[in-house]
Amino acid sequence: MPAKATEKLIQVNPIETNELTAALIGESPLILNRPARKAWEQLLLPSGRKNAAARESSLKHNPLEEYRASPYCISDESAPTLLAVMASAFKGAMMTAALDLPGTNKSQIGRLLYVVGEHVPVWGVPQLVMSVTRSADINRTPDIRTRAIVPRWASLIEIRHVRTLVNEMSVWNLLTAAGTTAGIGDWRPEKGKGTFGRFRIVSAFDPEFVAICESGGRAAQVAALERPECYDDDTREMLAWFEQEVVARGKRARAAVDVEADEDVEERTNGADAEAFALGATS
Length: 283
Hints:
The structure is a single chain. The model has no long low-confidence stretch (mean pLDDT 86). It contains 9 helices and 10 strands. It has 2 domains: 17-229, no CATH class; 232-283. Helix 4 (87-97) packs across helix 5 and helix 4 crosses helix 6. The termini are far apart. The strands form 2 sheets. Strands 1, 3, 4, 5, 6, 9 and 10 form a 7-stranded antiparallel beta sheet that branches. Strands 2-8-7 form a 3-stranded antiparallel beta sheet. The protein is 43% helix and 20% strand. By secondary structure, the chain is α+β, with helices and mostly antiparallel strands.
């Protein structure tokens, strides 16, 4: 009879975790990309298809509302900033960077590190930008999308990683590569043609980092969302045309209502006159 196989003891060594704090400065403007509130509402409670009259009587876009709804916001008024981005955006950028670096892979990095918290603060003064985008339908239908863009921005993130499997230098290298090859926000390098949302690591005492934090805190961001400035000339021209056209269409709509009301009054008046004439003829 074969000898009974000896059982081997499975021994699992304890893991050690470590936390790193990284101060970041944007190398290119950050386009904030919170999912549109209208899209959330349509998923929650679809309104059905609109007929031609309904489409003409309602606005497809409201640039100011879309601008204010595009960033994630921190509701706690004691927070240093109003604007925020998902912490997972930085982790995702590091996972993407792992695709181009030897010695690791995307899924492994996703298991061995993460950015602490759900949202991380973003310092900087937002501006309003309108740009032509392509919808996700099969025809790639063009549309105009309004978002908040932060030309000069900074952030402070805390990364927790498994030290026994990925050392500190590897984390710094991944984050550096992520700032160059992946980025965060809309139109970032990870998506192909875009160059927005790139960043670099700096000291928390770096003069530029300190200046952005001092000038682009919560109060400045609240004011910029209430009274936005346009990011470029194209945005300025489109927004001015939109505001003028809304006023003009509103006047035309009120004029059409007035004409219909006058015609209704005239019809009722003529009917009453005809009825009075008929009654007088028969009396």
